[in-house]
Amino acid sequence: MVYRKNKKYKDSIEISKNLEFYKDAIDTALESGKEELVDELLRFFTKEGDKESFAACLYTCYEFVKPDVAMELAWRFGMMESYMIQTVKDLTKRMDHMQMKADIKEEKDKKEKEQKGDQALNVDKFMNSNSLMVYQGGMSGQSPQMGGMEMNNMNMGGMNNMGMGGFQ
């Protein structure tokens, strides 16, 4: 524990291996976060023929284990079941995570489409109601309105009320 607290992980693992405190060695390797130490510990367990400790180390330190190293050691020392179980578990976990992200994205996209559809519908309703108000006057025999101004009062293209621009 003293070596581990002082971050002398390699020494701590060696002492734990000599005392056969394999759980402490595995926990120290995990805490170190170093692939080399985890690799050395896995190799130690395979040489000792300790399948349980190999599986425990593989499970505990999985994020620091290189797949090719784990597969080689498991195959060479007849421990493939430990490797395969852990690998399938990891792949299943990753696939579940990816599926969850895809579901969340799909739901978000669906909500955005619904909101855009509602906004477009509201714009269409607004446009239709305004166009009815603009042209209602023209249908009843009154002069049509454009933007609040009657056509009769508008001076169009230089023409005044006399018909030609400038002559009165």
What would you say about this model in short?
With 168 residues, the chain is mainly α. It has helices spanning 2-5, 9-18, 22-32, 35-48, 51-60, 67-76, 80-139, and strands at residues 145-146, 149-150.
Our estimate of the beta-strand percent is under 5%
Class of secondary structure makeup: mainly alpha
Q: Average pLDDT, to the nearest integer?
A: 75
Which blocks of ≥5 consecutive residues have pLDDT under 50? Answer: 138-166
Radius of gyration: 39 Å
Total E-strand runs = 2
Q: How is the secondary structure organized here?
A:
Blueprint: H1 2-5, H2 9-18, H3 22-32, H4 35-48, H5 51-60, H6 67-76, H7 80-139, E1 145-146, E2 149-150
Antiparallel strand pairs: 1-2
Features:
168 residues, mainly alpha, two-stranded antiparallel sheet, 71% helix, elongated
